[in-house]
Amino acid sequence: MSDRMVRFGVKPLAFLASAAPAGWLVWAALGGHLSANPLSDITNQTGDWAIRFLCITLALTPVRRLTGWNALAKFRRMAGLYAFFYGTLHLLTYVIADRFAGLDFPDGIASWTTAISLAKSVGEDISKRPFITIGFAAWSTMLPLAVTSTAGWIRRLGGRRWNRLHKLVYATGLLAVAHYWWLVKADVRRPLTYGAIVVALLVARAAWTMCYSAAARVGRPGPLPRPAA
Amino acid sequence: MLIKPARDIASSEITSRTAYVSRREFLRAAAAVTAAASTGALASEARLQAKGAPHGRKLANVKRGELTLPGEKPNTWEDITSYNNFYEFGTDKSDPATNAGKFVASPWKVTIDGECNKKGVMDLEDVLKGETLEERVYRHRCVEAWSMVIPWVGFPLANLIKRVEPTSKARYVEFTSIADSKMMPGVRYPVLNWPYREGLRMDEALHPLTLLVVGLYDEVLPAQDGAPLRLAVPWKYGFKHAKSIVRIRFVEKQPLNSWQEQAANEYGFYANVNPTVDHPRWSQASERRIGEFFRRKTLMFNGYADQVQSLYAGLDLRRNY
Questions:
Q1: Which of B140, B47, B132, B143 lies closest to B98 in space, CA to CA?
Q2: Which of A159, B23, B118, B180 shows a CA-CA span of 20 to 30 A to B77?
Q3: Domains of chain B: total
């Protein structure tokens, strides 16, 4: 696939497709197409999509190595930023629908008191409820990755350090799955599926690294085709 | 600096035609799988909004109950019949409405056994015989911190209990729900240890607020709400309200309810609505009334403290959650 085709064809399409769930949610919420508890639906859906995009992000490199389709490398940043985007929507929905909506407003809604009690309510909840703590930790690990996702930051950090920093995304994946797992009442099938995907991708990555460092020590090409980038 | 001459590429290192052709096929297959998966995901989201139940048979001669809540606006038929926790139909809130179509609630038999004089199998018609149906508008509080206001139609459980004459050994009542995998797809997965079981202490079961429900909004109860016979115990979390009851058993020892069996540290036997005792994973201090944005403060015993708190005098509610 040519560079032009990726840049002007596939990439914009992938961008739109990735934004589609958010667009669908806005449409469904405004049109009354969600369930009787729309705030809960929005919380769940944005969380689901954050985990799905994390899985996609983590899968891109292994799939690229397996298939040799190197153009996939060009989608890593987009997929990662979409994971951050849906994770941020998920966090904001929680802050608004779960925390803000539960406040008292002694000085009216638009007041310093509201801002302070909201900050307190979010802070207390994060420190008190372990599955919220873990969810917030998952989002927090994505923050430095999103900030340093620009070409400028890659240059400033240097490829090696940047790469090391961005390994954090595996921690994000594990934390996100733990967060989901902890919140369900009894039916763990969905968090189990996401957990299996994240762990499999982690293992694939570890196996790859081990193969290669072993091969590098012996000084002969490894058993698998070398990555192009 | 020593520059090694480039080695010729060994023929073994050249990707064979079959390998790269199959790689293309793999990519095509992968693309197809991805497309199918995303279509599936979107389709499953389109089902988020389950339609409410079709309207059923009208119940005749429903009296307006004295224990109805004044000043509360009931949720709509649509809300009450499309947003349900009924794991036998599936664990999503929309699953019961989606999967209720195959459920057959008639004929229906209820087994009465254990510590009582009139054991036996009763037809639903016999259960209802001689009872005056009344509408009771109750607050309904789910352990997940959402709530509704529901116009149930039924009669006091106490009436049925008196008819079957429990013995002096009967200290608790155990309710068993139907678990028929042909009509209820959720039963195929052991999410809980089926069939669903719940229990009440005898004085709770005999309390005038405890209702055996057969209807909603003056109509026959839809399957997703526990047709044809369910409990409403308004000062307790929703999971105490056994649905589609097929067995009522009188016992001497406190029965093990399904959620307690599943996670005893999170769900107790009493499950009284209590804003001061949090679920281990979330707060019970407030709730979202379905249809509202701002959360409401949860009331002690769900607002029924005047009627029921004497039942629990001397009981440590923190330990007996």
A1: B47
A2: B180
A3: 1
| Interchain contact, A24 vs B192, CB within 8 Å | no
Q: Name the strands in the sheet holding B120-123, side by side, starting at the edge strand that comes first in the sequence.
A: B120-123, B109-114, B245-251, B172-177, B197-201
Closest partner residue to B83 (CB to CB) among A35, A39, A102 is A35
**What is the enclosing helix (H) or strand (E) of A210?**
helix A189-218
Q: What angle do CA B297, B301, B265 make, to 5 degrees?
A: 90
CATH number of B205's domain: 3.90.420.10
Contact B50 A35 (CB under 8 A): yes
pLDDT tens string B234-286: 999 999 999 999 999 999 999 999 999 999 999 999 999 999 999 999 999 99
Domain membership of residue A2 (yes or no) is no
Q: Residue A154 has which token pair?
A: 């890659």
Q: How many domains does chain A have?
A: 1
Is A79 part of any domain?
yes
- Which distant-in-sequence residues (6+ apart) come within 8 Å of A58 by Cβ? A169, A170, A173, A197, A198, A201, A202
- Nearest residue of chain A to residue B297 (CA atoms): A102
A229: pLDDT confidence band, cut at 50, 70 and 90? Answer: very low
Which residue segment(s) compose the domain that B117 sits in? Answer: 65-264
Distance CA A144, CA A80 (A): 12
Range of the domain at A181: 19-218
Is A10 part of a structural domain of the chain? no
List pLDDT tens digits, range A19-58. 999 999 999 999 989 999 999 999 999 999 999 999 999 9
> What's the gap in Å between the CA of B187 and the closest CA on chain A?
12
Q: At B50, list the tokens.
A: 């389950």
Least Cα distance to B318 among B256, B263, B275, B257 occurs for: B275
Closest CA to A148 of A134, A168, A132, A128: A168
| Option in B91, B144, B295 nearest A102 (CB) | B295
Nearest CA in chain A to B296: A102
Residue B56 domain-assigned?
A: no
Indicate the pTM of the whole model.
0.85
Report yes or no on B171 lying in a domain: yes
pLDDT tens by residue, A145-168: 999 999 999 999 998 999 999 999
Q: Is some CB atom of chain A closer than 8 A to the CB atom of B260? A: no
Interface confidence, given as ipTM, is 0.84
